[in-house]
Amino acid sequence: MYGIAEKLHSFLKQQFSDQKVRELKSVDKVNEDGSVYKGTVDEDGLPSGQGEMSWPDGRLYQGSFAKGKRHGRGVISYINGVRYDGEWFADEWNGQGTLVEVTGDRYIGEFRRGKKHGRGIQEWRNGDSYEGEFLNDQMHGYGWFTHKNG
Q1: Contact call for residues 132 and 141 (beta carbons, < 8 A)
Q2: CB 3.0–4.6 Å: which of 18, 40, 85, 135 could bond 75 by disulfide?
Q3: Is the entire prediction scored with pTM above 0.85?
Q4: For the segment 61-73, what is each residue's pLDDT rounded down to a tens digit?
Q5: How many Å apart are CA 45 and CA 104, to the nearest integer?
Q6: For residue 72, which of 49, 100, 54, 45 has the smallest C-alpha distance?
């Protein structure tokens, strides 16, 4: 077992030894659109790593950034009560997440390009629920709809 760890360490060291390692620095930055970013930036001054972005309209995002975009895991809250907690790719909801809407309805499942897409569970405030497939924000394909009253 020890031999495998040594080989892996040697391989990784060899792979990354020629790459320049850059440290991220922490900043507080006001953007042209009035948004405020607090967190780490890359060598180009773009949000990268962990940070927080707030906008004049009340939106607040806390989570991961890459090359200036929300990317990785994060949470965004809107002033109207909408909240998304999940995975991001290039500034869009993408992957696994939970969306709580203004009405109190909740969706837990897969997202693609900012829309419910793939397998998920939609729960309505009235107690009804649907578990199944979604396509472009719509129930689609196989699934089970359950009414609160049976």
Answers
A1: yes
A2: 85
A3: no
A4: 999 999 999 999 9
A5: 38
A6: 49
